Each structure stands twice: as C-alpha cells, then as structure tokens.
Amino acid sequence: xxxKYGLEDKPPIFQLIAFGLQWLAITxxxxxxxxxxVAGISGGSSEEQILYLQRLFFVxxxxxxxxxxxxxxxxxxxxxxxxxxxxxxxxxGFGQSVIDTxxxxxxxxLALLAATGLFARLRQLFTPRVVATILILIxxxxxxxxxxxxxxxxxxxxxxxxxVFSLLLLLGIFAANKLLAPGFWKSTLLLWVIILGSIIYLxxxxxxxxxxxxxxxxxxxxxxxxxxxxxxxxxLLSFLICFLALSVNDLGSIQSVGAMLHTDHMEKRVxxxxxxxxxxxxxxxxxxxxxxxxxxxxxGVIASTGVASRFTLVPTALGLMILAFLPKxxxxxxxxxxxxxxxxMIYIMCSQIAAGLMTAFHxxxxxxxxxxxxxxxxxMLSILISFLPQDVLITFPLFLxxxxxxxxxxxxxxxxxxxxxxxxxK
Length: 426
Hints:
Layout: H1 13-42, H2 46-70, E1 78-80, H3 83-90, H4 96-116, H5 119-122, H6 128-141, H7 143-151, H8 159-179, H9 184-187, H10 189-205, H11 220-223, H12 233-261, H13 266-287, E2 292-294, H14 298-305, H15 313-323, H16 327-333, H17 338-361, H18 369-386, H19 390-393, H20 401-404, H21 407-422
Antiparallel strand pairs: 1-2
C-alpha cells in the first residue's frame, strides 16, 4: 500500500494538526468510556470523578508522546487498557492503594521481562487458541459491569426503558458501521454515537448535563497526588494475569502496524514498545489511574487516511495533555449518560469477540473439536464466576477472592492448563 506520508515524513504544519485532530477524535471517546467506568466503580463525588478523568487524560497523553518518540515509534493509538477493568472491578473492597500498588508492580515486572528478553520466552504460551480465548474472555467478563451501566436508573427512568433505548442504539451503531465507507466518519463513529446518542437520550427522557459549579482544579490533580504502597498477594496475582493479557494486546498491536508498514528493526521496536508500556503503567499506578496499552484499531485508520506518519500523533498527545488542564471540558464530557457508555462498550466488546474468533479460525492448523473444548471450558468458567452472586463471593477466603472471584483470571488459568497440559499439541 502506498502512503501519502510515510513513517518518518513530517506533513506541513496545518495538515499535521488536522491529522492529529482526527486521531484525537478517535482517542477521546475511548478515554471517556473507560475512565467513566473506573471512576464510577471507585465511587466518589462528581468532582473526584472529574479529577480522575483529568489524570487519565494526562497519563494517556504522556504515554502517547513517549511511545511515538522513544518507544515503538509508529503511528499507534495509546489508550486505557480495558482488560484492567476486570481486575479493578474484582478488587473493590481491598482499597485503592492496593490496586495502585498492583498496577505499579505488574508494570515494572512487564518492563523488566521485555527489557531483558525474557518476554520472548513467555510468547510461547500465546498459542492461537490461548490468544483467541483471552480476547473473548475480556468481553465476556465485562458483561456484568456493562449490564449495570445500561440498567442503572436516574429519576423516573426505568431499567426497561434504558434497555430498550440501548438495544435500538446498538442497531443504529451496527447499521452505521455497515453503511459508512472507510474514512473519517467510520473511524470516528464512537465519537458521533456518544454525541448524538446523548442528545437523543436527553431529548426523550428530559435529562440534562450537569457541570459542577466548583471545578477549580485546573492543576489540582498534581497537588493532590498521593501514593501508599500496599500489597495484597491475591489482588497482585489477579493484576499479573491481566497484564499477561495486556502484553498480548500490546504485542499484537505493534506487530500489526509493523507488518502493514513493512517497518524495519521490528524486534527492537517490540522490545522498546512493551518495555515502555510497562514503565508507563508504573506511572499510571503512581497517578492512581488505570494503565495504558497500544490499541489495535490503528491499521484501519492508517489505511483509510493513507497517512502513516508517526508525527501526526504528536498534536494528539499534546491535545490530550491540554484537555487534562480544562476541568470544565472534562466535566462536560464526563456527564454522558451511563446507558450511552454501556452501549458503546457492547459495540467495542463485539469487535473484541470478532478479533478473537478471527484468531481462532484463521490459525494455520485450522480449528478442531479439541480447540472448541479448550476455549469452551475457559469461557464457561469465566461466565459462571463473573455472574456469581455477592453472597456467594463473600464465602470465598479473603486472600483468594481476587483470583477465584475474578472470571477473567479463572478463564486465563484454565485455558493455559487446557492448552499446555491436558490438550497439549505434540
């Protein structure tokens, strides 16, 4: 494929800004969606949730800039890792300091594995059916959280009304995805879904955006930073397994763009990229926000624009950091109804499942009945654990609850046992 601007080309300043704004329009909805979910899980006042989003915008912006200048040095979107939502949701009740510490330690371990070359040995665990299962597990184990977002009520709005609205909006999203030609509009579909969906929802149900009166926190998220080191072995193990999945996502994203652009020195780019992903997650933990990862949707954007220059993401990174210091703008974006967030998450997770199925069925050795058994048990166990009632979970030993009570962790452990021990291919 021939590109208008290659990897190391620098477009004229106005074109550079225009392309950067396009990347920004794609990145912002993802940050808002994941950030709102995590901020909602941890609770807190509306001002604290705005503060969380400010920190997340800043961390993602810095991560983006560092990766394109010093890491993999390719046009790859960086965003909050959805897989870590699973560990964060399963670790509630153990304290924010335990979660932050687990992200810091897990990020540091990932960075050390990548920098020392040990990560290459771990890659042997990631067979096609393991990777496929992990991709699908992320979607399935987030289902309870998505369901809560869709059915949560405000005022006189009933869960049934929210559910009907969500289903109709979903049909509209998939119809738009089918009808839109590849390009700017399709690449920024999530942005328009959030904007138009929120407007329609507010018109139907009479809701209104709320922007806090006191948002005098333009630089406050620096001054209010604090970190308390606190380790819980069960929570840490849960995060380590989620970081295993995060590394799979990171590796796949870097390699997919590298293959598309026929980039040289890919081994070095992979090593630098994953090492920095680990270190940037350490920074995310110190800032008290969810960690970051390279996103796999970048090749579609590059193909639709014909622009492969990594420098087009510099304005994107700077724009994210500027938004972090605009609490009024963050408050406005953060006031999106939860049903819209939940519905867009369903769409994102459907893409995740599609990627998993493609990985499974396009494997070189084909897809056999045993492959279905390996994946099937892991998926069934993860669903059962994810939907366990709270009164059952509290009967688990406290130190095992973050592991055995986490559907994703149970699913990953079971697929590794099934793939590498019970149904090991000779």
